[in-house]
Amino acid sequence: MKQSKIIGLGFYVPENIVTNHDLSQKMNTTNEWIVERTGINQRHYYSPENNDTNYGFGVKASEIALKRANLEAKDIDLIVYATLSPDYYFPGSGVLLQRSMDFRNIAAIDVRAQCSGFMYGLSIADQFIKTGMYKNVLVVGSEIHSSGLDYSDEGRHVAVIFGDGAGAAVLTATDEKNKGILSSHLHSEGKYAEDLAILYPNSHAKDKFDPNEQKAGGKFYPIMNGSYVFKHAVTRMPEAIEEALNANNLKAEEVALYVPHQANDRITQTVQKRFNIPDEKIVRNIHNYGNTTAASIPIALTEAWEAGRIKENDLVCLFAFGSGFTWASAMIRW
Ligand code: COA
Description:
Peroxisomal Thiolase, Chain A, domain 1; 23% strand; alpha/beta; binds coenzyme A; 2 domains; 5-stranded mixed beta sheet; 33% helix
């Protein structure tokens, strides 16, 4: 059986930087509150006047990843596109990416696993490569959150957290043993689906696009039971790490770099303490980008790779938790 390895990484965030101070001018919040509770200093927001789109961010991140992989769009056999903020209700953003670059008429799979979306996508890519069906797969995570956040008091605990951006990874088949993605582990627990969700538009509403119905319930904004999400994240993320360690017979200290989904820096620090991970072995960049959901792991991974924090044969553990609830991990030998 083939193994799959990452041979190209890229990310893109829009130019428009929004600091905590900027947010405090348009809503009832403070820099101190945001920094203390989340670790976030700034995030990047899309600009409608620049015609920014979710798939457009995906294109920019993919171009960089493909260049670094020494491949062209026409060499890719499959697109896996993770997002919770798609360009359209349907079709998925994967096909919009497909038409925007020089891809062949390849399959484009959209993944809806929110903050675990990139991890789900990576695992899907890995399975197609392992079976020999595809050789080169592009996995993208991209989000535009800022257009749909509730900046009123009711939504401020959510609005301050999220940012926009995209990341991409190119995977290829290899015959090398014990290399690339060693294992991936995916989970969900739908009983908490409505604890972190956008409930509108939905297909079971009487009139799914009735703006009055949406406004009345405020349901077209994300809702989040923050303390619940926190509690589950700091339980499920360590479980996912343990699973990846056990599956590969590894000890926590053998991992060279941990790359968490950047949910909230307090969540990351709690997990970090639990495994005694020193600062140099974990990627924490939420202060610059906020939580970019499906984009956060590929952005963090790309930044770490660009900074020379990942070397050949290093063990890299990726892990995520998010809406669904969903959670996931992967162990990679670089
Ligand atoms: N600015 C200022 N005050 C705010 C605020 C904001 N942006 N958001 C909420 N508050 C206020 C609340 O109104 C509340 O005020 P009160 O005590 O007068 O009622 C107070 O701060 C505490 O609110 P609460 O929601 O209980 O805060 P918290 O300590 O639970 O922190 C989160 C909120 C969202 C930071 C925290 O729950 C969290 O990090 N959860 C996980 C979120 C996450 O990671 N989501 C992404 C998952 S992928």
